[in-house]
Amino acid sequence: MTETAAFRVIHARVRKRRNPVSRWYRRNERAVLSAAGIVSFVAAWQIGADAGLIDKFFFSSPTDILAAGVAEVQKPRFWEDVKISAIELGLGTLIALVTSVPIGIAIGWYRRVSLTFDPWLNFFNALPRVALIPLVVLWAGLGVEMKTIIVFFGGFFSIVLPTVEGVRTVDRQFLDVARSFRAPQRLIFTSLVIPGTLPFIVSGLRLAVGRVLAGVIIAEFYAQTSGLGVMIARSASTLQPDRMLFGVLIFTILGIGLTEGIGIAERYFQRWRPSIDLEEAA
Amino acid sequence: MRTEHLALSARGVKMQYRDRGTGNVLLAIDNIDLDVPDGAFVSLLGPSGCGKSTFLKIVNGLLPATAGEIKLHRVAKGREDAMVFQDAALFPWYSVLDNVAYGLVCAGVPRGEARKRAAPFIDLVGLKGFDEKYPYQLSGGMQQRANLARALAVDSAILLMDEPFAALDAQTREVMQAELLRIWNAAKKTVLFVTHQIDEAVYLSDRVVVMAARPGRVIADIQIDLRRPRDLSVKRTPEFAVYEEQIWRLIAGQYGKTPQPDAAS
């Protein structure tokens, strides 16, 4: 009989105590790496532009954009544009939110409402809504009203469809509990349907952020009356890429801020859910 | 027979429905008669598909019966019946206290008042100190305690329990069975308990109503004369084994009579 290695031995791994620097790094890995990514991109852009490898005429440079921004914030016209865009965005999104949630809940909950409005929802969802801008201009002119309506379109359909979906997927066993205890209809909505649908409303809102920002820019491009979109369009056509990119940067920061704000609101409303740590899950 | 109040009296309850796929009419429950005296602990025992949970849902009003009549003893105030669900079915966005108060809120009690009245039931089921926890922070057994407290809080005359311990592990289930008897003793409720576990039915009940499937019907009604209060050691006595054996034979006998596609022959 020949002796063979009959066992594969699995050793325990002794955890080594890491030094403080690597412990700090592991805790902040996410922040460190994303900051490093941003800094090296901006640095490469700046160096490339200064060395003449990147044509400043088309691509500007980080310091030029910063300088354009500093000049811009001293003009009253700039703040007038900011105000107009903020009103269009805020008002359009707010109206979209307060109308889409109740309408979505009604369509999701009542079968007959759903059968009646489903074709319309699908129709308007499939419709490229920016194509309606000329029509909206006929109704509302070239001012704030028309641009607010365009923003509203983008927000409303982003939120209403997930809301309908959320209501339809409310857990049947919770419905049985409510019916078993003879919950009145109003209580079924407040205790069950709305909390169950909230995650869907929030994901609709996330989708809406991109759509309302795009809506306000497109509407302002089209109307050419006032707002940051006009500032962007005019800067490009007058060959000022630094000023234009400063406008784009504002919208980008706004989008990130809104998304973060939704995240904070979501964590507050969803504190009943076990939290999943991104680092641990990865 | 003693003259006593009946908490529940069912006559000729029948449930049939049309299969959406085949169009055949299926008889889920055929002619169930059942009397549950006030204060009694009665179990409905049978294999899956015998309609025992369906019967409970009919009593609770979640499903309409096709034929028959069910009388529940009317109470001066509050609900006649309250359901303890198979899966705890606690609202995940409510704290334990708000979940336990839910039945009262449904009955129109203002939330603050409902929470005040619900609090003692949290203590009764052994969840003291967990009032403000969310369901995800509770183990399966603790969730079932909250589920039970929610039904107890509405102070109904009869408690309907739909296999409440089926999803628990064996050890937790035994603990919960003993706990249920303690709570039943303290709360003085009538209980109609649905289960497919023979030892659970015998251990808990005054009477075990044995059901058979296809169609769902009652095949035996067995008085359990084990002395109360019972602790878990009762399960190791010869008398207990005799009851288990008797019921097991009744259920096993059914498999010989009708062809059972899912029986191990």
Brief account:
The complex is a heterodimer of chains A (282) and B (265). Chain A has 282 residues and is mostly helical.
Descriptive report:
The complex is a heterodimer of chains A (about 280) and B (about 260). Chain A has 13 helices and no strands. By secondary structure, chain A is mostly helical. Chain A has 2 domains: about 45 residues, no CATH class; about 200 residues, MetI-like fold. In chain A, helix 10 packs antiparallel against helix 12 and helix 11 packs antiparallel against helix 12. Chain A is flat. Chain B is α/β, with parallel strands linked by helices and about 260 residues long. Chain B has a domain of about 150 residues: Rossmann fold. Chain B contains 8 helices and 9 strands. In chain B, helix 7 crosses helix 8. The longest helix of chain B has 20 residues. The interface between A and B is medium-sized, with 20 and 23 residues.
List keywords for this structure.
heterodimer, A: 282 residues, mainly alpha, MetI-like fold, 2 domains, 78% helix, disordered C terminus, B: 265 residues, alpha/beta, Rossmann fold, 6-stranded mixed beta sheet, 3-stranded antiparallel beta sheet, 8 helices, 9 strands, globular
